[in-house]
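User: I'm preparing a small set of examples for a lab meeting where we compare how different chains pack in three dimensions. I only have the primary sequence for this one, and I'd like the structure in token form so I can line it up with the others. Please keep the answer compact; I'll paste it straight into my notes.
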Amino acid sequence: MQAVMRKLALFIVAASALSVGAAEPQGSNNALYYRLFSPLTFYHNVASHQLNINSDDPDEVSQAIDQALMHVYLNRPDLVAFTETERQEAGTLRQDIMETPVMQTVEMVEQAAPMPEVPEAEPVEVVVEKPNFWKYKGDGYLQFMQNYVSGNWYKGGESNQAAVGSLTLEANYDNKSKWKWDNKLEMKLGFQTSPSDTLHKFKTNEDLIRYTGKIGLQAANRWYYTLQMLAYTQFYHGVKSNNEKIFSDFMSPFNLSVGLGMDYKVEAFNKKLTGTINMSPLAVNYRYVDRTDLAQSFGVKTDRHTHSLTDFGSQLTASLTWQLNDVVVWKTRLYGFSSYHRSELEWENTFTLKVSKYISANLFLFPRFDDANNRDEDLGYWQFKEYSSLGFSYNF
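Assistant: Understood. Below is the structure token output for the 396-residue chain.
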């Protein structure tokens, strides 16, 4: 409240001074108005001027300010903040600043130095890597079999040793959109010895070269329109104990099957059962036998100029892997082809028992039906193959 009253008094003083209407003295630097805007102070000369009968001060503005201040001193002494003695003890104004203006020295140059050119943004090298839609995997094993039978064994039999090696390579393309291309190459070769076989020191017990390729266009969810190609033959000639005849050989036979149909991707039991099932209602099977003397054994007509057989029909191929538990895996492959005048069915089953990371045991069961071969008196057109082995295995 005191601050408001103090400012009101100052406005009254200013109005009184302006109402005088006197001209400002020549050469004045407005120092007379300092008392109007500084904190209200009791000046000694204000009282002396008012009590002096013969005033020698010709300045009407100064007289008006003195009268205004004297009026405040008499009526509102509580608004006076300082006395002139207190102001003098606090110090006086610097006369050098009031008399001599402060001039700033400015250094002028002909031309300002240009600003350095700075790019708005530092260049950033962006590397865009093309996604790799290819996945590669494989597995292999080398296993051994040994069977010892003493000469006086009550059931008979003979000792034998065998070894089998297998290598499977896969290169699969999937662009996560519509197209996929699967490639699988399987190679197996095994030999065995039998003391009773006097003609052959070694003979094959497993022999296979097989390529499976599929190009698929996604139809819906797990279904694909698929063109499948299957080709297989063997490495070495096949013989029987104490028999000089060769029953099969490299490119005798060679089978090529091409089918057009649908492919279904299998994922079941929390992805423990995986694989594919291919159904090709339109299929062509080409069989080539390089050795003429073996042509008839594989359904090719006996003709020295004929080495091949072509059939049209339908085929079914299923390739599945089932992780039964942490140590047992069942791999199965079912292949069937029918030309409506001959039929062929193969069912391969491999049970793998993982003993350790690099040691495993295999049980292989392979029933097969082919009515193009000669009919057996006991099994008819059925054939059967089985073996078990123990050895080294590796997945990559």
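A couple of notes for your slides: Residues 2-20 form the longest helix (19 residues). Residues 281 and 388 are 36 Å apart (CA to CA).

User: Perfect, thanks.
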